[in-house]
Amino acid sequence: MPPQVGGAGNTTPGKHAHLRTVCYLAGWARTRQDPVQFHPEDLDTSLCTHVIFAFALLDQTGLVLVPEEPLKDPEMYRRLTLLKRERPSMKVLLAVGGWSMGSEEFTKTVSSEENIHAMALNAVEYLHRYGFDGLDIDWEYPGDRGSPAGDRHRFTSLLQVLRQEFNRDHHVTKRNRLLLSVAVSPSPDRIRQSYELPELANYVDFISALTYDLHGQWEDKVGHHSALYSSTQDEKDSIDYLINWILNTSIPRQKLNLGLAFYGRSFNLSDAHNTQVGAPQNGPGAGGELLGDPGVMVYYEVCKLLTEHNDTITEAGRLPGTQAPYVVDGVRWTGYDDVESIKEKVDYAVQKGLGGVSIWSIDMDDFHGICGGGHYPLMNAIREQLHTSLIG
Questions:
Q1: Residue-wise pLDDT tens for the chain (392 aa)?
Q2: Dist. CA 132–CA 134, nearest whole Å
Q3: Residue 344 catalytic?
Q4: Is 226 within 8 Å of 302 (Cβ atoms)?
Q5: 69, 105, 125, 140: which one is catalytic?
């Protein structure tokens, strides 16, 4: 069992008027087929307080930020940062890392104080070159995937030096201070292995909790990957459990963003007649109509299934005790989020006194309205619920 919620150093939950809506944008979304190919100009700037372009990489030395697609990404950077003309208050950050990059280059970065300082100086120059407002660190994960255990502490040192260099740059040049954020997995085991909480919170402007992928095809049974509350007797099987656990590390609540997934996880049922959570499964469900990624159904693929192919659906509903929806078509079981479950989570974030929400990723919303429910139904649900929860 986790320690009691509300440990020393936590602020009291409460409503506050300026919550973050942090929108990750996957750089590779531009390569998708029509009608879901996403370009910076498809972004509705009224929906996000912060936009984070994912991902830049580190070069082989671990000292220099480089674009993932050298011939394309710099143009994407410029087109994205130009959108600040539409909404000057919106902040545009660059994320470095991601699952595909792994740990090797980050481990080189933190292998010495000299390397950490060199990377920080290079990062300042790179961010200003392309007009970014800050840097988001997505190391998956310190102390794992080839990263030695000591990288857990060295990761904190990296954030400390980045903060110092961002402050120094602001003081010397009078430019706006660069923002620093971090994405973390909130599972107790991961936190113990990879993050020094609450120490690292001292150096960042906000922390995005990756509160999804609780279940997936890597397991032998069906489960919803992003349910706010558990539908089973296992209280650990929920976002609520993870958020309570991470808050017990005494990080400031208003630095924490609740992660929202605009995609679902699908399973291939072993028995089409057993559709309950916990039912046996034998691998990822068939890929969706537009992207075709096994085990994944992004929101616009789910909504097309519901609106255009509902004759193939054998079961649809919500899990007990939460708004988390699921749909079964043939032997494919998919747990996902829709307008109602997103609103449930946004209200939860407000009631918990969190600093906002972060979205992976905005290009997975039905941004063109191909399902007939208007443009950006999930993002508009976030905006509507924030308004409702804050004035309620």
A1: 222 223 333 444 444 457 999 999 999 999 999 999 999 999 999 999 999 999 999 999 999 999 999 999 999 999 999 999 999 999 999 999 999 999 999 999 999 999 999 999 999 999 999 999 999 999 999 999 999 999 999 999 999 999 999 999 999 999 999 999 999 999 999 999 999 999 999 999 999 999 999 999 999 999 999 999 998 877 788 999 999 999 999 999 999 999 999 999 999 999 999 999 999 999 999 999 999 999 999 999 999 999 999 899 999 999 999 999 999 999 999 999 999 999 999 999 999 999 999 999 999 999 999 999 899 999 999 999 999 998 86
A2: 6
A3: no
A4: no
A5: 140
Structure-token pair, residue 225: 């990957």
